[in-house]
Structure formats: C-alpha cells, structure tokens
Specification:
Layout lengths: L10 E8 L7 H17 L4 E3 L17 H17 L6 E10 L2 E10 L2 E7 L24 E5 L2 E5 L3 E5 L6 E6 L9 H7 L4 E6 L7 H15 L3 E6 L15 E5 L2 E5 L8 E8 H10 L2 H12 L9 E5 L24 H25 L5 E5 L3 H17 L6 E5 L7 H14 L4 E2 L3 H7 L2
Parallel strand pairs: 1-2, 2-3, 8-15, 9-10, 10-11, 16-17, 17-18
Antiparallel strand pairs: 1-14, 3-4, 4-5, 6-7, 8-9, 11-12, 12-13
Helix pairs in contact: 1-2, 7-8, 8-9
C-alpha cells in the first residue's frame, strides 16, 4: 500500500469533459477526445466522461442516417481504441452505432486498447425540441446483447457494470441524457447492483432554468443512489440553428457538489474531482434500507432488480505516489460555507431544541427549569432555548432558575458572560460560589 496515493486511501479521480465539437466530423472529434484524455491521464483521472454523441455532435439531424458518417464514426472509434492502449483512463464517449438494422444512441466505454462495452440510450425524448425516435431505436430492450465493432464482439446493453479489479469499490455504470430524467432511471438499478460511479453523457441544449433542473436531478440521483454521479453536457461547437448549448459539467457525491466547470466557455472544459469510495461503501452499509430496496425489487419488482446485470472487469493500473487531493475539505464540516444555508441550519437547530423542550415540559407536568451557567457555549445555548420555550408556553421566565457557579478555575471573562446573559434574559439570576464546597468535598 502506498500511503501517499489517493487511490490507496479509497479515492478515485473522475472527470466530466467537454470538447469543441466539429459537427459531423468524427475524426476531428476523436482527436479532441484524445487530447482531453491525455490531459486526464496526466492528472491521474480514472474515468473521463464526454457528452452525448461526442463523435458526431448532437445537432446533426438527418445526417445521422448517412452511411458515410456512420462509417467514419466506426473508423474514429477504432483510432481511439488504438490510441488508448497507453492510457489507463476509462473513456466514456458518445457515438451513433448501427445494430440489427437500427441506429443506437450509444455510450462507448474504452480503456487500455479495447472497447469494454457499449451502453445504448434507453429512453428517447420526443417532446419539445427533441425528436430522437426519428433517428434512433431505444436501447432498453438490448439487455444481454453484443455488437461487433472493428471485427470484435463487444457487450451491448443498459445492463453493463464496469468493475476495476485493482481499485476496490470502483464500479462504473453509464446512461445517456434522458435516461436520468425518467422516474426509474437505469442508474438506480445499477446502483442497487453495486455501481458506485454513475456516468451520464448528455446532449441537453440550454434553456432558461434548465441548468438548475440538471443540477437538481444529478444531486438527487447521487443522494438517492448513495453514489457519485458524473454529468457532461454538450457545449461549444454544437449547431445553433434552433438551439443553444452551455457545456455544463457536474460531479456530485451523495448529494454534495464536488466539482463543476465554467458554462458557456470558449474552449474545452473539464471538471475533475476525487470520489470517496470508502464513504460510499460506508453510507450504503449504514443505510440498511438501500439493500432492503434491492431485495424487495428483486422479489416483487416486476422485472426491475430481477435481471442480473453483467459485469465487465478491467485493470486500471492507477497512478501511485502523491497526486494530491481534488476535492474541497471543509475546515468546519458541520458549518455550511453558504450564508443562506447557514442561516437555515441555525434556524432549524434552534427551533428543534425549543420545540423539544416545550414538549418535554408539557409531558412532565410543566415543572420549573434549573440551569447552571458557565459562560461557555453549551450552557449559553441551553439558557436561550429555555427562555424561548417559556415564552412560547406562555409561562414567566421567572420559572427558570439560572445559577452561575464560580469556582477556583473560573475566569473573569466566563463569569462575566454568564452573569450578563442571565441578567439580560431573567428577572432574578442567582450566583453560588462553589469553591468552599469543592474544598470540603476533597477533605
């Protein structure tokens, strides 16, 4: 074990990448992917996720049905596979692929000189600005299938998990754009089957408010699935005939934002973060209902959870030595940095205690309250909560007996704080010197 290695400490580095798309030019787009992939590899990234239909661009419309373009896509994929031989990074790239007389909107998973598998888009939108069924067939019924690429049979289906044999806990699942927007996305079943890193290749164009919608969905998916979620949307270079693109990238872990890149950027972007695989394992162990959900669906899920997902193993050979840590570590982990969130947390913490104190007093016959004030944080907060509870119960604050208890170790500062607080909140504060009692107790 290498103590300085983030990978040996339970982390895995992931990236959500955008490129400058060259419309209907797979070779140029493959070159852009390779440039980003090399940069990711140099940074120690294990998994790099690119936007939907990376190799052609999303907004190419009926060009998707042209044989020369589809031939060029397969040639570009072959070039990427060869170029990936010296790269340990897993590349998740979007491409239109022919299969059994239909066209699939697919995510191709490439690593170490081979295609590990192909995940087709399960759910094709046909509302608002989308009309994907004009070109593509849905992939939700392709479980257990395979596809031949460059003469090699490759696993095909939404039922694929990609597991690193040399990075404990790294299990990748891939879905495409709209798959995330449906009530039960493929990634949910994958998470229950053990996936810890969920990837989404998106071609989502930008409209007013959509960035926050994406953020909400990615955040909630990572929280519900107790997983990391890596999201990459199409950006610069996509056709603006009737749409616009912002290139939003997001990395969330159990509901917490780890990284995002600039939107509407004038060049390629990538968000990079280190995912805590040990945390994911611990959260799933702690929340037993996660596994209960898996068992319930396996027994009663009408198909969901019953099908065993296929696992494709690969060796990552992650970097060793100190590669740093690409995630924010809060100095005060229980105090939010955001002022609005902090105010909300303080409001809730205070009123939780006030409400609880009210109910306890009612339950035990509305006795008086006795508090020893030291001038420290705990007793200060207890006195403020008690005063508020009395106000809400309609009782006088004189029913609170607050005592300051100065002794040998009491400083003038803490004594003064306790005295002033009691005088400000109560009509009759009390003071009892405990020095003599302390001496008597020790003989």
């Amino acid at each position: 074990m290498d103590f300085d290695s983030a990978y040996d400490q339970g982390f895995v580095r992931v990236a959500a990448c955008t490129i400058t798309t060259a419309i209907a030019d797979p070779q140029a787009n493959a070159a852009a992917v390779l440039e980003a992939a090399r940069a990711c590899f140099d940074e120690g990234v294990a998994v790099a996720v690119f936007p939907e239909l990376t190799l052609t661009g999303y907004a190419v419309d009926d060009l998707l049905l042209q044989e020369p373009l589809l031939d060029a896509v397969e040639a570009a994929l072959a070039e990427l596979v060869v170029a990936s031989t010296d790269l340990g990074t897993v590349l998740v790239v979007g491409a239109p692929l022919r299969h059994n007389g239909r066209l699939l909107n697919a995510a191709v998973v490439i690593q170490g000189g081979r295609i590990l598998g192909v995940a087709p888009k399960s759910y094709l939108p046909t509302y608002r600005e989308f009309y994907e069924r004009r070109h593509f067939a849905p992939g939700d019924d392709r479980r257990g299938e395979s596809i031949v690429l460059d003469g090699v049979p490759v696993p095909l289906g939404p039922d694929l998990l990609f597991r690193a044999t040399d990075v404990p806990g790294l299990v990748l699942h891939v879905e495409v754009c709209e798959d995330m927007w449906v009530p039960v996305p493929p990634s949910a079943e994958a998470a229950l089957a053990g996936a810890t890193v969920l990837a989404n290749l998106s071609g989502s164009p930008i409209t007013v408010g959509r960035a926050e919608d994406r953020r909400l969905l990615v955040r909630s998916a990572s929280a519900r699935c107790l997983a990391a979620y890596v999201y990459a949307a199409a950006g610069l270079g996509e056709s603006s005939t009737d749409l616009s693109w912002d290139g939003q990238t997001l990395i969330y872990e159990v509901g917490e934002l780890l990284a995002e890149s600039e939107r509407f950027a004038d060049g390629p972007q990538r968000a990079v973060a280190d995912v805590d695989l040990v945390r994911l394992r611990q959260e799933r162990l702690r929340q037993g209902t996660f596994d209960d959900n898996r068992r319930s669906l396996a027994e009663h899920g009408n198909g969901l959870g019953r099908t065993t997902l296929r696992t494709v193993d690969f060796e990552l050979s992650p970097p060793r030595g100190d590669i740093g840590l690409r995630r924010h570590v809060d100095r005060f982990p229980f105090v939010p940095d955001d002022a609005e969130r902090l105010a909300l947390d303080c409001y809730e913490a205070y009123n939780i205690q006030v409400s609880g104190r009210e109910q306890r007093l009612r339950a035990i016959g509305d006795p008086k309250i006795v508090i020893g004030g030291s001038g420290g944080l705990d007793s200060t907060h207890a006195l403020i909560v008690a005063a508020k509870a009395m106000d809400r119960l309609g009782r006088p604050r004189s029913d609170i007996h607050a005592f300051t208890l100065p002794g040998f170790a009491t400083s003038a500062g803490t004594k003064g704080n306790a005295t002033r607080l009691s005088q400000a909140l109560l009509p009759q504060p009390h003071e009892v010197h405990i020095g003599d009692g302390a001496l008597w107790s020790v003989g």
